From TrEMBL:
Transmembrane segments: none
Reaction catalysis annotation: L-homoarginine + 2-oxoglutarate + O2 = 6-hydroxy-L-homoarginine + succinate + CO2
Keyword Cytoplasm: yes
The organism of origin for this protein: Ensete ventricosum
The protein, known as: Fe2OG dioxygenase domain-containing protein
SUPFAM superfamilies found in the cross-reference section: Clavaminate synthase-like (SSF51197)
CC cofactor: L-ascorbate
Key words of the record: Cytoplasm, Dioxygenase, Iron, Metal-binding, Oxidoreductase
Any GO CC annotation of this UniProt entry: cytoplasm
Length: 352
């Protein structure tokens, strides 16, 4: 749907989390109010902040501190965990290696994925099989990140329960075959000060305009640096500044499809004009690797005009999995990926 929102709503989910395991949660007044706010936000902006989320602030900060320390290391240290096909495309990516809309992005990153055992998803999964690459320094890096991933997965599952209720489904609609074994992704991102990047390499964009391909993204932004922007229906870029003790969340393309077009996966971008190096940690809660790409049968209100006559050749994406799929698989894209690409194409067509 989408709207001309001028600000991103803030939703306090604490009352909802308190009742998360109560089978009668759907009758509770406070829970219903949180669900109403989630429903409005997913329809209108496709973005919202969550507060009262229960993740300790000390851990949220530790994750950003460890990320900053890693990106501060000399180049030779960082490339020790370089992203390669041997690690299933996990690991360190240099500034300008990530391409969005044909333009290099001014960020460096470590990409982590849910670890995949050999053979789990046959030939389709094979290129993403592997384990995450963790640096030796800072020495607590792996422990901190693994604890964070575990808590963010759980928080995402809980928020998806609220979204399931908002769509009129059972609270566990996004569990089991849909996202009970989420193929999650985490990107640890560092945006250098633009003047520190050689002029030859420099563009004006930290991360080009894109939508996310999955269900729900939770971003842990650096304090005080205003760089994330979200595009409303009229094409205005609305700021999503960091707000202490919150995550900024957004809906991905798969949720748009599963909600039959009711919920919006909204274009966003990062422009770091600050004189400070910016760190952010984006956690992407995704469907199961082999989930069906079809709307829920309990929500069929708004028909989504989808057709499948697209090819992979001339498409762009900022997200690692779709980027990789497009590069490596070309014509052998399976139907679900074609659907996601179609949605992305529609979104990119709208970018100025
Ligand atoms: O750095 C951010 O604030 C957002 C990053 C983002 O949009 C992405 O990685 O998809």
């Amino acid at each position: 749907m989408g709207s001309d929102f001028q600000a991103i709503p803030i939703i306090d989910i604490s009352a909802f989390l308190e009742k998360i395991d109560d089978p009668r949660m759907g009758d509770d007044k406070e829970v219903l109010e949180v669900i109403r706010q989630l429903d409005d936000a997913c329809k209108e902006a496709g973005f919202f902040y969550v507060k009262g989320h229960g993740i300790p602030d000390s851990l949220v900060k530790e994750v950003k501190d460890a990320t900053r320390k890693f990106f501060n290391l000399p180049y030779e240290e960082k490339v020790k965990i370089k992203m390669t096909s041997a690690s299933g495309h996990r690991g360190y990516q240099e500034v300008a290696e990530n391409i969005t809309l044909g333009k290099p992005d001014m960020h460096e990153a470590i990409d982590c994925y849910s670890e995949m055992e050999p053979g789990k998803y046959g030939a389709l999964g094979q290129p993403l099989e592997g384990s995450n690459l963790w640096p030796d320094y800072p020495s607590n890096f792996k422990v901190v990140m693994e604890e964070y991933i575990c808590l963010l997965k759980d928080l995402s599952r809980k928020i998806m329960r609220g979204i399931a209720l908002a769509l009129g489904g059972p609270p566990n609609a996004f569990e089991g075959d849909r996202a009970g074994d989420s193929f999650w992704v985490m990107r640890l991102l560092g945006y250098p000060v633009l003047s520190d990047i050689p002029e030859m390499q420099r563009t004006d964009t930290g991360c080009g305009a894109h939508t996310d391909y999955g269900l729900l993204t939770l971003v842990n932004q650096d304090d005080e640096i205003n760089a994330l922007q979200v595009r409303n229906r009229s094409g205005e870029w609305i700021s999503a500044p960091p707000i202490p003790c919150t995550f900024v969340c957004n809906i991905g393309d798969m949720l748009k499809i599963w909600s039959n077009g009711l919920y919006e996966s909204t274009l966003h971008r990062v422009i770091n004009n600050s004189p400070k190096y910016r760190v952010s940690v984006a956690f992407f809660y995704e469907p199961n690797f082999d989930a069906a790409v079809e709307p829920f049968d309990f929500y069929t209100g708004v028909p989504l005009d989808v057709h499948f006559d697209v090819t992979a050749k001339d498409l762009h994406s900022a997200v690692p999995m779709t980027r990789w799929m497009r590069r490596e698989m070309q014509e052998s894209l399976m139907l679900p990926m074609k659907l996601l690409i179609y949605i992305n194409q529609q979104n990119y067509a709208a970018v100025d």
